[in-house]
Amino acid sequence: MSLSKVKELLEKVYSSRLPDQDDLVYLLGVDTQQEISCIFDFADSVRKRFCGEGILLRGIVEFSNYCFRQCFYCGLNASNLELTRYRLSQEEILESVKLLANSGIKTVVLQSGEDKQATVSWMAELIGKIKTDFNIAITLSSGERPESDYKKWFACGADRYLLKIETSDKKLYASMHKGMSFNNRLKCLKILRRLGYQVGSGSMIGIPGQTLEHIARDIIFFKAEDFDMLGIGPFIPSADTEFAKAPRGEAQLVLKALALTRIVTRNTHLPATTALGSLEKDFRPEGLKAGANVLMPNFTPLAYRKLYSIYPGKRCLTESPGTCNPCMEQMAFSTGRPIDYARGDSLKKKRED
Which of 72, 76, 91, 308 is the most buried (most CB within 10 A)? Predict the structure, then answer.
């Protein structure tokens, strides 16, 4: 593979309305350090042009690990009888939100499994309290819900919703989501967009059965859907799942997918995910150098944090939330960029749907 061809293809996928799958597959498959660095440098220049230098912070509060789904990759799956389940009270959640807001962070991500006890009215009340007490944006990440739930939460003040597709391939999706509908996932994403949410999705890299062609099609899907935010991280096998013995995703492939997603989507918010920081080393600084512009410090109370075990080896399980900002600032400093304490709303133009 030649460096000149890599440069040529990078310009091509950057300028295309929709990139060519074969071009993306080629770029995902490059294996020399010089070629990989070329991709990362190009992505970093696109990030700088469309997103600026600042690194945004989103504070995560994992409020429940109950889930009735049986996803083959997730340690929260309903079949995992070894996991101690928890559900935070509104008071505990509000205390965590107060801590992150007092740290200067202006977005909270309320994340959970698909918990039937997190009723529409309970969530609506919580959203209203957060909006009343704190001047911050609210991102929800609680899976598939009826349109009426999404509508009520938006009316109460929720700003964003994260619903990862994990893969845009229908057959691959079915191979790891028992009893779930790919078409319903797509439907939910469209409903969220129509209701006015800033919408996030994303994918895993290294899923059993996944090919470079699958990843390339994901990137094309992300471009076509024009999401406001995307989370791209490695598959990490969990012992209490169907995929327990599968190999984990490779960091370099995750970083290449992240970089190419930046190049193709331009101004979509892209985090250096916690999963990317939970491999054989913390690869989040590399993610920030390959196009990412968001970090997501964890503000889940320490007593519960280990129990939100989507995958093993998760980063930041024992650190006090009060230490998050200095850690994030140190990581940002290592990349030569500052932390941006703005809300970090979507950089996409307002759509007429």
Answer: 76
